[in-house]
Amino acid sequence: MHRLLIMLPVLVSAAIVLTPDPAQAHEPTCQRRDTTVTLTPDSAVRYRIAGWMCRPARPTNTVQVLMSGFTYDHKYWSLTGSGRSYVSAALQAGTAIYTVDRVGVGVSDRPPADEVTVLAEAFVAHQLVQQLRRGPSGFQHVIGVGHSYGSAIWMIEAANHHDVDALILTGYLHQANPVQQAAVAAGLHQASEDPLFANSPPPGYVTTKPGARGRSFYYLPGADKAALALDEQTKATGTSGQRATMNLARDPSYSRNITVPVLLVVGDHDALSCDIAAGLLCSTAKQVCARERDYYPTNTPVYAAVVPKAGHSINGHRTAAAMQSSLVGAWARTAFSHHAVAWSRCQA
Description:
This protein is α/β, with parallel strands linked by helices. The protein has a single domain, classed as Rossmann fold (3-Layer(aba) Sandwich). Helices cover 26% and strands 19% of the residues. The strands form 2 sheets. Strands 1, 2, 3, 4, 5, 6, 7, 8, 9, 13, 14 and 15 form a 12-stranded mixed sheet that branches. A 3-stranded antiparallel sheet has the order 10-11-12. α1 (86-93) runs parallel beside α10. The chain starts with 5 loop residues before the first strand and ends with a strand. This is Alpha/beta hydrolase. Keywords: Hydrolase, Signal. InterPro entries: AB_hydrolase_1, AB_hydrolase_fold.
């Protein structure tokens, strides 16, 4: 059994605050580490990004940077649907983790909603990667890890900047199920109307309606009830800019410019990615490969894995350990050597 991890060295060229964080008290090796970023290369306006740096027991030169999905913050990676969190599994596997509240969510700054787009967040991710690599304690290898919209961020970042060493993309394939996309959209409302957001987020910020997350993001027979309840209690916001641009990464011009190893992970009951009636098959890794291989260059290693009895938000399902252990942790350690292991490599 293998597990997944991520960590961050000192972020240079940015303001950093390093403090123990009560919200991550169950992850005892994590410390709060913030930085500042801009949304575009020519902007002078800097926004604070809240981050958590997690170190494994032994030294490592590889860091995984975690990006959450739409209406999720860093707490997604601490859901314990399988009995332990993604972060805990990663630390046990021996790599480092840097998990963030993306700009506009959690305790990070909230820019105007129309400015928080997938293109802006891809540039933010690029700044984080560069900060992680700098200095005497910089990491040699940086892996971009995303969930859903977070995967879209990493696809664009990798295509535009070519500065990550590998990608782990969960819950995001090139073809989506439009029926479920419409259902998710119908389950949104203005964050200012939600009792969980009494601090009145700016106009254009949305969140899921109370009780909507189960039907939007979960395969309920496989969901962990406690994880789903926590998901509802800790939900985050999304923006009008994200909604308008989140499908941009499905443009093949991005994936065809990705040159590093890619691991695609999807739940076999992910209603946003899978629909038998529409021909969107994802019950097996072979089916995922058939859908995705041609979107990437022939010399880009592409792998696929399917988590059984899991919906879109994999970490809240009881089978999440299939991703955390036997898949992602081992793959992260062999991504640079291309050794054959338990997942399926998609043949060009």
